[in-house]
Amino acid sequence: MRKFMLPAALLALGCGSAQAADNGFYLGGSIGQSSIQLTEQAVKFDGTDTAFKFIAGLRPLDWLGVEVNYVDFGSPDDSVGGINIKSDGTGFSAYAVGFLPVGPVDVYAKGGLIKWDASLSAPALPGLSLDESGTDLSYGVGIQFRLLSLSIRGEYELFKIEELDDVGLFSIGLTWTFL
User: Fold this and answer.
1) Nearest residue to 169 via CA among 107, 89, 103
2) What number of other Cβ atoms are within 10 A of residue 89's Cβ?
3) CA spacing 20 to 30 A to 115: which of 90, 100, 133, 137?
4) Whole-angstrom distance, CA of residue 37 vs CA of residue 153
5) Is residue 55 within 8 Å of residue 29, measured between CB atoms?
6) pLDDT of residue 121
7) What pLDDT digit, counting tens, does each position of 156-171 carry?
8) pLDDT in tens, 100-150
9) Are 73 and 36 in contact (CB under 8 A)?
10) How far, in Å, CA of 22 to CA of 12, rounded?
């Protein structure tokens, strides 16, 4: 009987520290796929590429956090009617994040703003180009699994960039919480 008491005590201590690691300052990164769509006159651009982001956040309460991200959407390109169109985009986003903790799993939604820089060009069509920057709405949903201070997360974000029809990012990443 005594040989089961030590593992049970260690398990109980581990469960308590997993809950304590939920709140605090966190850093991380994600990699995924960006999607950019634009319809301009008779040209429909629909490009995807590998994207990444860096994450910094603060979760002062179990149900609430704030987060800032640097996002690189990669360089999605598409061939429309034999004409190659290329895009490039980056941005800084800031969010309020609402968490629904269910044991070691968090379901979350976030909303905020993105300050973006984007370009789109088609060398064969000099009239079709975009080199803009601005600030627009962004939001997303995700799920993360916490193991002590490490969290594995998957999320989908939408960016309502006025000059583009649709910009989305699906990513999978890691964050580390510092107590």
Assistant:
1) 89
2) 27
3) 100
4) 25
5) yes
6) 83
7) 999 998 878 889 999 9
8) 999 999 999 999 999 999 888 877 777 767 788 999 999 999 999 999 899
9) yes
10) 17
Residue with tokens 């803009």: 132
Pair of tokens at residue 113: 């703003």
CA 50 vs. chain centroid, Å, equals: 13
Is the pLDDT higher at 29 or at 44?
29
CA distance to 19, 136, 152, 177, per residue, from 174 (Å): 18, 26, 5, 10
Residue whose pair of structure tokens reads 């605090």 in the numeric block: 24
Rounded to an integer, what distance in angstroms lies between the CA atom of residue 74 and that of residue 123? 19
Asked whether the beta carbons of 98 and 110 are under 8 A apart, the reply is yes
How many CB atoms are located within 10 Å of the residue 137 CB?
13
